[in-house]
Amino acid sequence: MSDKKTLGEMLTERGVSRRSFLKYASYTASIMALPPTAATAIAQGIAGARRQSVIWLSFQECTGCTESITRAHAPSIEDLIFDFISLDYHHTLMNASGIAAEEAREQAMKDNAGEYIVVVDGSVPLKDDGIYSTIAGITNLQMLEETCKDAFAVIAVGSCATFGGIPGANPNPTGAVPISDIITDKPIINISGCPPIPEAMTGTISYLLAFGAIPELDHLGRPKAFFGEAIHDRCYRRPFYERGMFAKSFDDEGARQGWCLFEVGCKGPVTYNACATLKWNGGVSFPIQSGHGCLGCSEPGFWDMGGFYKPLSTATGDPLKWAGGAAVAGAAIGVASAAMARTKRNKVLKEGK
Amino acid sequence: MELLEFARGPVLTFAITVFIAGLTYRVFSLFLMWRTKDSSAGRSRQRSAFMSAIREIIRRLWPQATYKQRTMFELVNGYVFHIGLAIIVFLLAPHIVFIKDLVGLSWPALPNNVIYAVSIITIVSLIAALVMRIGNPPQRLISTFDDWFSWTVTFLPVLTGVIATSHLGARYETLLAIHILSVALLLIWIPFGKLMHFFLVFVTRSQTGAHLSHRGAQL
């Protein structure tokens, strides 16, 4: 539940030193590519803020996004995210269940009308009146519309909530759609990824708390601080791409030498995310560093981009599927046109005689 | 991303289908055309039709002394952009990957920066060819839609490729999609315009050589 105390007061009570808090503010400012002076603004903003009520809705998802955010690195300081916010409803993390859980959601909505933030992971099925995913007897669609009605802002986390993700992949049996297809009258921040980078989620929430405003977003509604640059442009293997040195398979000499993974299907050139800079597991590594090409998981329709191991410069599907028919048809038209020309010529010659 | 998927999927499939159909149409309609039987005796013909054809192909690789002065720039420029195009199409790694995926053949690539330099030279060379065409009144007069359009669809893939590589003006996925769309346009146009010379150039030169030799031209 929301607290009357400011976050600054609460943190002091919990024994969090001013130094630790400023370090966190500086870290957040730097990963969001804000100027150094913003660290002070973030620190002051967060210290003066009240605990923000957050309602977390999980729809057609795998809980990977929750797994990711609860493993945000910089332990203890990132954990503070859960002290900064009042997580009033979250299936996986809350103690209450059944009616008590739903009552907590309704109470939070009532107490913080117009001020609470809704975080959504998972897509919403629309086919057959949305019966493919229901919670507490209502469809995801009903719960989303009801909960977002009085929200201050909506954060869609994960590729399912932002772009439809795996549930929305071809042939999309449940008619899954992203949150932005349903909620059109509230600010929506998309933090895509399968799952998203933990710091992208915590950093965005911190920004919201500190400034009470939406960070700068790209054309897909994603914070530019995390989704402003392509993986390829920040990849440490980029020089190999430029030199034309590619791994041809996952166990050849090129792969062992750490050459570019473009030819084994890396989608880095068209994927915008901070994996190559922030990395994962506390900055240890990221997929390309571990030897696998980028899947493009933070982009719309990543599941249907023609195959994870198909190079980006190749045609998708089977471009030669009509080649045989085309050759036969072309030849037939050619033969017919030559025959017609011959007939016409013979006719003219005959008449001439 | 959607435009890129559209370009890589349905558009490329359509373009390749039209290209193959157009190619076989042109080849069959051309080779099955009637041939007027030439009953005249060859004039002091010293070589066989085959040898005349080969000689003509070789002879036309370089201008005759009489025309050397006048046509040297056009000839060299022609070689520059033809070789440039061949290097770009066949020696850039992503292009080789495309061909390998299509027909299963692959070969070593050149570094991207080399291809980039070749692309710039090719662009300048193609623009020079266009300027020559516009600046030369007789050539301009005999130029048809085919000439202008063929130049445009040849130029666009090179230009869009360089722009995509340089990340100029838009996001990479959009630029890559535009590049693929321009290639699709080229593929669709090739069989139906003068660009068909990529396939017929030596066929037509052979025919000319054999014909001229029969008529007694001293080649």
Number of helices of chain B: 9
Please give the alpha-carbon distance between the first and last residues of chain B: 57 Å
The CATH superfamily of chain B turns out to be Transmembrane di-heme cytochromes, Chain C
**Helical content band of chain B:** over 70%
Question: How many helical stretches of chain A?
Answer: 15
CATH architect. name of the largest domain in chain A: 3-Layer(aba) Sandwich
Structural class by helix and strand composition of chain A: alpha/beta
Q: Given this structure, which CATH class of chain B is correct?
A: Mainly Alpha
Report the radius of gyration of chain B as a whole number of Å: 20 Å
Largest sheet of chain B: none
Judged by helices, strands and strand pairing, the structural class of chain B is mainly alpha
Query: Beta-sheet strand percentage of chain B?
Result: under 5%
In terms of quaternary structure, what is this?
A: heterodimer
Would you identify the regions of chain A where 5 or more consecutive residues have pLDDT less than 50? none
> Could you say which overall geometry of chain A the principal axes of the C-alpha atoms support?
elongated
Task: Work out the number of β strands of chain A.
Answer: 9
